[in-house]
C-alpha cells in the first residue's frame, strides 16, 4: 500500500507543469525592449520639441500684428493671424533687396568653392603630391579656424585691394571657410572611386581633366551635391564677415539687414524682425528637406570601403 502511494506521488510530480523558463526569458526581453523603445521615443520627442520651440515662438511672433504685439499680449498663439509683418518687410522695409543680394553672393561663392574643391580634392586623391598629408591637414586646420580671428587680417588685405564694401570681397571671404570642408569631403569620396574607370578612359585617349569632369564627377555627384549644400548654408547664415566688410545698406545681405528692421524711435517691433528671420530660414529648411537623401548619401558614401 505504501509503495502504491509513493508511485502515485511520483506520477503526480511527473505530470505537474514545469515552468517554461525560456518563454519567461523571452517575455522579459520583449518588455525590456518595449521600455527601451518607449524611452528612446520620449527622449527624441523631448529633444525635437526643445530644438523646434525657439523657431515656433519666432513663427508665432511673426504672425502677430503690430498693435497686438505692442499690447504685450501673452499666449502661445496670437489672437488674430496676419501676414502684415511679412508684407511690411518686403514692401516698406525693402527686405527683398538683401534677400536677392544673399542669393547671388551665396550662389557665386558656392559654385566657386565646389569647382575649386573638386580640383583640389582630386589632386590630393590621385596625384603624387609631395606633402599631400600636410596639405590636407592644413586644409582641415583652416576649416576649424575661428571666423572672428580672420576678420582683422582680411580687413587689412581688403583695404589694400579696395575690396571693402564689395560683393566680390564677401564671396572670397565665404570661400575661406567653405572651401576647406568641401575639399575634405570630396577628397574622401574620390578615394573610394575605382581607379580602373579612369585608367580605361585614359587608355582611350582622355586627358586627366576630361577624366575628372566626364567620369569621376558624375560618379561623385552625391558628394558634390552635399558639398554645395553645406557651402551654401554656411555662406547664407554668415553675419560676421558681412557686418565687417559691408557698409552700404543697398549691398547688405539678409542676416545683416535684419539689424535695421522693425526699429522706431520709441519701440522695436520684434514681429517684423521675426518675420525676416522666418524668411531667411525657410529656404535653408526647404533645401535640406528636399535634399536630405543626397546629403546623407554624400556624407556616408566615402565612409566605408
UniProtKB/TrEMBL annotation:
<feature type="transmembrane region" description="Helical">
    <location>
        <begin position="134"/>
        <end position="158"/>
    </location>
</feature>
<dbReference type="Pfam" id="PF00528">
    <property type="entry name" value="BPD_transp_1"/>
</dbReference>
<protein>
    <submittedName>
        <fullName>Carbohydrate ABC transporter permease</fullName>
    </submittedName>
</protein>
<feature type="transmembrane region" description="Helical">
    <location>
        <begin position="38"/>
        <end position="59"/>
    </location>
</feature>
<dbReference type="GO" id="GO:0055085">
    <property type="term" value="P:transmembrane transport"/>
</dbReference>
<dbReference type="InterPro" id="IPR000515">
    <property type="entry name" value="MetI-like"/>
</dbReference>
<feature type="domain" description="ABC transmembrane type-1">
    <location>
        <begin position="99"/>
        <end position="291"/>
    </location>
</feature>
<comment type="similarity">
    <text>Belongs to the binding-protein-dependent transport system permease family.</text>
</comment>
<keyword id="KW-1133">Transmembrane helix</keyword>
<dbReference type="InterPro" id="IPR050901">
    <property type="entry name" value="BP-dep_ABC_trans_perm"/>
</dbReference>
<dbReference type="GO" id="GO:0005886">
    <property type="term" value="C:plasma membrane"/>
</dbReference>
<feature type="transmembrane region" description="Helical">
    <location>
        <begin position="99"/>
        <end position="122"/>
    </location>
</feature>
<keyword id="KW-0472">Membrane</keyword>
<feature type="transmembrane region" description="Helical">
    <location>
        <begin position="170"/>
        <end position="190"/>
    </location>
</feature>
<keyword id="KW-0813">Transport</keyword>
<feature type="transmembrane region" description="Helical">
    <location>
        <begin position="211"/>
        <end position="236"/>
    </location>
</feature>
<keyword id="KW-1003">Cell membrane</keyword>
<dbReference type="InterPro" id="IPR035906">
    <property type="entry name" value="MetI-like_sf"/>
</dbReference>
<feature type="transmembrane region" description="Helical">
    <location>
        <begin position="269"/>
        <end position="290"/>
    </location>
</feature>
<keyword id="KW-0812">Transmembrane</keyword>
Amino acid at each position: 500500500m505504501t509503495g502504491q502511494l509513493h508511485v502515485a506521488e511520483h506520477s503526480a510530480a511527473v505530470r505537474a507543469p514545469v515552468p517554461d523558463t525560456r518563454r519567461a526569458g523571452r517575455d522579459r526581453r520583449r518588455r525590456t525592449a518595449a521600455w527601451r523603445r518607449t524611452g528612446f521615443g520620449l527622449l527624441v520627442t523631448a529633444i525635437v520639441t526643445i530644438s523646434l520651440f525657439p523657431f515656433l515662438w519666432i513663427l508665432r511672433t511673426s504672425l502677430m500684428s503690430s498693435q497686438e504685439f505692442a499690447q504685450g499680449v501673452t499666449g502661445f498663439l496670437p489672437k488674430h493671424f496676419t501676414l502684415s509683418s511679412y508684407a511690411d518687410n518686403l514692401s516698406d522695409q525693402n527686405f527683398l533687396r538683401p534677400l536677392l543680394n544673399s542669393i547671388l553672393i551665396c550662389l557665386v561663392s558656392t559654385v566657386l568653392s565646389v569647382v575649386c574643391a573638386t580640383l583640389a580634392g582630386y589632386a590630393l586623391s590621385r596625384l603624387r603630391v609631395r606633402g599631400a598629408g600636410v596639405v590636407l591637414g592644413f586644409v582641415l586646420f583652416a576649416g576649424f579656424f575661428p571666423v572672428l580671428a580672420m576678420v582683422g587680417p582680411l580687413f587689412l588685405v581688403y583695404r589694400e585691394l579696395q575690396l571693402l564694401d564689395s560683393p566680390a570681397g564677401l564671396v572670397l571671404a565665404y570661400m575661406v571657410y567653405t572651401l576647406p570642408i568641401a575639399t575634405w569631403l570630396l577628397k574622401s569620396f574620390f578615394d573610394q572611386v575605382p581607379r580602373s574607370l579612369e585608367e580605361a578612359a585614359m587608355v582611350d585617349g582622355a586627358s586627366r581633366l576630361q577624366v575628372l569632369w566626364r567620369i569621376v564627377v558624375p560618379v561623385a555627384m552625391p558628394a558634390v551635391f552635399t558639398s554645395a549644400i553645406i557651402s551654401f548654408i554656411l555662406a547664407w547664415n554668415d553675419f560676421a564677415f558681412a557686418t565687417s566688410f559691408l557698409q552700404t545698406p543697398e549691398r547688405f545681405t539678409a542676416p545683416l539687414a535684419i539689424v535695421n528692421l522693425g526699429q522706431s524711435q520709441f519701440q522695436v517691433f520684434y514681429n517684423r524682425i521675426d518675420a525676416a528671420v522666418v524668411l531667411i530660414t525657410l529656404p535653408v529648411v526647404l533645401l535640406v528637406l528636399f535634399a536630405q537623401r543626397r546629403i546623407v548619401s554624400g556624407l556616408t558614401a566615402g565612409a566605408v570601403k
